[in-house]
Amino acid sequence: MLKVSGVHTYYGAIEALKGVDLEVVQGEIVTLIGANGAGKSTLLMTICGNPRARFGHVSFEGEDITQLPTFEIIRRGIAQSPEGRRIFARMTVVENLQLGGLTAPKERYADNLEQVFTLFPRLKERREQRGGTLSGGEQQMLSIGRALMSQPRLLLLDEPSLGLAPMIVKQIFNVVREINRSQGVTVFMVEQNAHHALRLAHRGYVLVNGAIALSGTGAELLANEEVRAAYLEGGH
Amino acid sequence: MEYFLQQLINGLTLGAIYGLIAIGYTMVYGIIGMINFAHGEIYMIGAFIAVITFVILGMFGITWVPIAVLIVLAMSMIFTSAYGWAIERIAYRPLRHSPRLAPLISAIGMSIFLQNYVQLLQGARNRPIPPVIQGGFSVMERADGFNVSLSYLQIIIMVLTVVLMFGFTRLINHTELGRAQRACEQDKTMAGLLGVDVDRTISLTFVVGAALAGVAGVMVTMYYGVIDFYIGFLAGIKAFTAAVLGGIGSLPGAMMGGILIGLIESFWSAYFTIEYKDVATFSILVLVLIFRPSGLLGRPEIEKV
Fold this sequence. Notes:
The structure holds 2 protein chains of 2 kinds.
Chain A: E1 2-11, E2 14-24, E3 29-34, H1 40-47, E4 55-60, E5 63-64, H2 70-75, E6 78-81, H3 93-100, H4 109-119, H5 121-125, H6 136-148, E7 154-158, H7 166-183, E8 186-191, H8 194-200, E9 203-208, E10 211-217, H9 218-223, H10 225-232
Parallel strand pairs in A: 3-8, 3-9, 6-7, 7-8
Antiparallel strand pairs in A: 1-2, 1-4, 4-5, 9-10
Chain B: H1 2-32, H2 39-59, H3 65-92, H4 101-122, E1 127-128, E2 136-141, E3 147-151, H5 152-174, H6 176-186, H7 188-193, H8 198-224, E4 226-227, H9 231-246, H10 251-271, H11 277-291
Antiparallel strand pairs in B: 1-4, 2-3
């Protein structure tokens, strides 16, 4: 479904991604783990064309999307809940969700909204509240809910657990599993919380210094010595 | 009292015109964080299109006022929209990722270019037109014969401004385009990630602001009956002052700032010296910048994220 091959991305002269290859198959949950600064968020943004890859290709459902403008990529069925959540602070919860539904058919709006409210009842309670006044967990829910409003076939999640209480992390990971199972949304998720992420995911990749160092099923990576040493036993 | 009332009417009319121009400044600032220094020229071009269209309509014998005014408004808005679009395309978009000084300079260049271009095509002399809409009400009459009058034209200017501002506020607050516009103001990267065509939204912001300035140009042509290629400079700076006074980036602020500037100018001219009315206006700009840099209705720059 999503294929990243030999992607190099630069910020000015700095090479953030140094030839990344990976693949996400329809129906999977795939996670990408790695240390701070390894290039995880850059990879998600490169998939969305902002910044564009300087070398290499990104293809989605067989089409090369490397050079497309961001809004065109999104209109092909990819949605992202990005690093830092990026809620529109001065807009209400509903307005944020309406913006999320921009690319979905208008007649599906009410159903999609209802579906998001079912997944995250908290958002329904706060529907008229401004995004900037929500708690961190609620903002994360809104960020994911907003991404789901476009009925994506591929959902990109950037560190959905960052800075959240364990209870809420659990709730959010349950929702991710739920939308994957019952709605068939393919999920590609970047995480630092490797333990949770690898247990949830069908497969995983490890990104080190802008390149893929390891890959395997979630269980394989959980059992892998190097992964354990680098990402699991350091306090998790 | 009667004199005061008359100045109030005059000030509100003038303020409506400034307010319409100020919206363009504030919208463009809101979305790209830069002042469109060529915006005053758009208003001037709107005024010239109005004169030209009136003349052409006269040649074809279309002199029934409502139709003529509607056609003039439409033509002016169409042309100024095109100019607004072109300014963004030529002076701003190629420099989107350059240091902020670059688009500032290119916009000033655009402004000078447009002034000279109109001067070259239309000549440097004043362009008068005969009054299009005449007559009005006498609101009040003083014993000594002083008349407080409210002309039909003033009513039309104020009503049209209120309708446009109301419609425009609804557009921004309640339509998909308005939501996309506000999203781009807050976070262009995220707007893009939601499928908003950011470039197109910025273009549309210039276009809509220019169309409103075009309407202001038509109004001023009919109100004063004479225009020249240089009117955009002063009106532009005053409308910019209005936008700053109200709080740059704030839509209601621009409207309020416009009306305040109109009132200040009109009352200053009436009770003090008319020669110094611009000094009064720009003193306000200086005072606002010193004591309340974010304007009357503006947001402070620091925000909790």
